[in-house]
Amino acid sequence: MAYPPPPPSQHTGVNVGMSGLSASGPSGVSSAMTAADGRTRFSNDELAIVLSYFDIGIIEAIQEFPRGSRKAPKLLIRAEKGLFLLKRRARGKDDPFKVAFCHQLQLYLASKQFPLPHLIGTRNDNNSMLQWRHNIYELFEYIKGISYDNSLEATGDSGKTLALFHKLLADFQPEYEPAMGSYHASRSVAVSFERIPQALHKNDPEGERASKQQIIDLANFIKTSYNEAAMKVNEMGLPDWPMQIVHSDWHPGNMLFRGPKVVAVIDYDAARIQQRITDIANGSLQFSIIGGGDDPAQWPDHLDEARYKRFLRTYDSVPNCVLSRAELRTIPWLMIEALIAESVIPIAQTGQFARMEGLSFLLMVERKVRWLQEHAQRLSEILDS
């Protein structure tokens, strides 16, 4: 269940200074225990020290919360004052100024009653982050919810919630500098293309699944499709459109539902300055793509057009969030860019996508890209039907 937010004073502290812990704690306290499953965990001493700086009452139970990055340990804590989630940020995600931007964004949204887990301030200085021994800790209220059920109703509420997110942040001026860049015309994606053939060949050195030339042809098609989509989007005017804070990772896994309603949006680490349509196109893809199973060869080429249409219609229904025809024309091409970007970066690094073999996954991406290319005009006009 969701717990009411703490008093306003607990939601005002964004501070990149130390939270009174730099000189406390016994020497030799470890905060980097790693278990056999590869997940880092809190040490007992570390946990005792960190929790002492939060006013959550008597602690009744603590259990691991093994979600997300293995390098960012999380604990579910049942205490006298409610349920909480404690997180230690992973290395590389712990720049205090970037965390401060992320927190300022969340605190602002919380003040506007946007659905998200509220940050819990530290006991003495109401700081939204706790810094100790070069680590950053965050404590959130814990909100219970269910996963996305693929229904039109849940899809619609996700689109509506994204519109509310954009509407609330349209004029938001953060104190800390946000990141820029996105999956659109990304240099990281461009670098990944060059590594794809070698990464795939490593997993199939004998060429049993595909010849070297077939792999090169596949990589070239995906690279060409990405570059052509980016060029089309730029020609449609995207670089000249206004920019604002976007979520940049709007997908079902970052939402909790109660029935068809979104009760919490999580993970603001990717938030940045971009044109809002990059968020909308990625959300359209994420909430309409059809996958299923561990064999990408069995995934269909097409997307779920009913869900695609519902996501965009509910976004468009929010006052002051109406989509322009120019924006709508870019969506299929931005979806192509988002699909390719999300796929090629991990495959270029490991030859795999999650637990799926990279070649099979890219062949599926190729089919879906071809379908999007063939149906781009109809998809851009879907709100007129």
- In the sheet with the most strands, the strands line up as 3-4-5-7-6
Supply the CATH architecture of the largest domain. Answer: Alpha-Beta Complex
Low-confidence stretches: 1-31
What is the CA-CA span between the terminal residues?
40 Å
Q: Tally the helices.
A: 10
Which class do the helix and strand fractions yield? Answer: alpha+beta
SS elements, strand count = 13
What is the helix content? Answer: 40-55%
What is the 3D shape?
Answer: globular
- CATH fold-level name of the largest domain: Aminoglycoside 3'-phosphotransferase, Chain: A, domain 2
Largest sheet: 5 strands, antiparallel
CATH class division of the largest domain: Alpha Beta
| Share in β-strands | 5-15%
CATH superfamily name of the largest domain? Aminoglycoside phosphotransferase (APH), C-terminal lobe
Overall mean pLDDT: 90
- Rg from Cα: 22 Å
SSE order, one letter for each helix or strand: EEHEEEHEEHHHEEEEHHHEEHH
- Whole-number tally of structural domains: 2
Explain what this protein looks like in three dimensions.
Helices cover 40% and strands 14% of the residues. It is an alpha+beta fold and 385 residues long. It has 2 domains: 8-141, Phosphorylase Kinase, domain 1 (2-Layer Sandwich); 152-384, Aminoglycoside phosphotransferase (APH), C-terminal lobe (Aminoglycoside 3'-phosphotransferase, Chain: A, domain 2, Alpha-Beta Complex). Strands 3-4-5-7-6 form a 5-stranded antiparallel β-sheet, with no helix packed on it. A two-stranded antiparallel ribbon has the order 1-2. A hairpin with a 5-residue loop joins strand 1 (33-34) and strand 2 (40-41). Helix 5 packs antiparallel against helix 8 (325-350). The two termini are 40 Å apart. The model is unreliable at 1-31 (pLDDT under 50).
